Amino acid sequence: xxxxxxxxxxxxxxxxxxxxxxxxxxxxxxxxxxxxxxxxxxxxxxxxxxxxxxxxxxxxxxxxxxxxxxxxxxxxxxxxxxxxxxxxxxxxxxxxxxxxxxxxxxxxxxxxxxxxxxxxxxxxxxxxxxxxxxxxxxxxxxxxxxxxxxxxxxxxxxxxxxxxxxxxxxxxxxxxxxxxxxxxxxxxxxxxxxxxxxxxxxxxxxxxxxxxxxxxxxxxxxxxxxxxxxxxxxxxxxxxxxxxxxxxxxxxxxxxxxxxxxxxxxxxxxxxxxxxxxxxx
Length: 281
Hints:
single chain; alpha/beta; three-stranded parallel β-sheet; 10 helices; 16% strand; globular
């Protein structure tokens, strides 16, 4: 029996309806949420992501200001734009699109964003507050993945959860969020010995490693919930880190690529921006 599809398009659309109401409520009080996106260079994937963010802002009535900077932009020029957005009271969220060109220091740039305007949830203060279970801005992709699990009514407390990947953007915050929901969490990575031994125990399996179709059916527990965060391009087509066609016959729940977690990432960016505006008010 095939797994139940966790449809990011449907869940994101439902969340957007709620966000529209929150934006309208803010506008009635004289405040329009504002998001500044800083895009340096001409990376095609980044161009697509930024375009999707602009469209989402337009749908929700959020003011969107995209600053496109040339590939030769200096660190000083980038930082000056971040500081300008920090000082603008009409801007509630600032996003520096990653990856930046190699000559730029992304950690230094991200550290300059005011924590309350860090709608990507990458600032050290937000990451630190998350690790302590405190109120903070949560990184959009793991926040979206958790929203999918909860929306589908998938039990988390007391369950075995395995996260493949330990990046600061997805793996680590995902593990922390699952811990906060009282799951027993294992984080696996490139140095993990006998990875499949861990993944076969997982009631909830999150794949975030950037290797196309890496997670095969023999690595998945019968009846597991499989969250595929990977976005890879193979032969001109998008696919995830999970061998979807094989794993869907074994899992109870699975996210597709495209149309899964990626849709929720954009929705959570909008949620973080609206929340920042509400706190500013």
